[in-house]
Structure formats: C-alpha cells, structure tokens
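[09:14] KT: can someone run the structure on this one? pasting the chain below
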Amino acid sequence: MVGKKKGRFNKIDRRAVKGRNFFKSRTFIVLMVFLAAIVFVVGIQFGYTEEGISNVGTDPVLLTPENLPAYLSSNSIIKEMPSSAKLTIYFGDRVYSLKDEEIILSEIPDPEIIISIPENYLNHEWTSFCSLAKTASSNGDLQVNLIASKTKLALKYRNLIKYRDCL
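[09:31] RB: done, structure tokens below
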C-alpha cells in the first residue's frame, strides 16, 4: 500500500461493491441514470405516435364536467400510469386528480404533475384526450408543471413515453 493513493471514490465504491450498499453507491446511481437516459433516447428515436393509442379512431365524445372523470378513467394514458401516480388536472376552476388509480373530484396533497387546461375546452367533442391536449398545447393554453424532479418522473413514468406526441 505504500506509494499508492486511494481516492475517495475508489474507497466508497469498493466498499459498496463488497457489501449490500452497492444499490446506494454512486456507481449504481450513475449507472441507473445513464441507463434511463439511453431508454429515453431510444424511446424518442423509435417511439410511437398518436395513431393506434389513446382512444384514437373512436367516435368523438362530448366532454362535459360531468362525464370527464369517467372518460379519464377509461383513457389509455391514465390506465398505463403507475399505481402510485399523483396527478392533478385543472379545467378552469374544476379539479380532477388521479390518486390510487382512481379519478377524484378534489385536489390531492403533493401532486407530482399539475396540468392546467382552460375550461373552454370542455363541452366540445374530442376523439381522444390526446387530441384535446395537442390542441390546447398548439394554442398555448396547456400548462404542465412538474413538481417532482425530472429524473424521478422519467423513471416512474417511462412507459408513457409513447404518448409524448400528445404534448
């Protein structure tokens, strides 16, 4: 050991690999972030478009404040969200939240994502929620606030990358 310096990272990583702390080590975290970035880039390159997903091709549905919770519950985007998803959608002064795989008509504490759409998008016929979101986005009316970190959200909602064209 004489003449050989041990760096701070070598010491930490060597200990982490030997014991159960590997999953808490910097090497593991960097590896997982790198892997998530690769999955994200590959998803973008070979991702899906709106065709064939999210109720596309069905008859237009008149979205009203009364039928919106049932419509959202049956939507493929909402169905594919993780069971621990915390999402709040504002339509004007109306609030719809996803909690425990269920749409509720109230705010939830600590949402991860907040989506705001003006109320004038209700009481119109839409072929899908994706088409509503695209229209609101192209008109500059869609607001998406990410409360949790982008890395955490990218890992948690990675199976929704195929819906990226909705925004």
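[09:33] KT: thanks! The chain has two domains: 1-46, 49-166.
[09:34] RB: yep, looked fine to me
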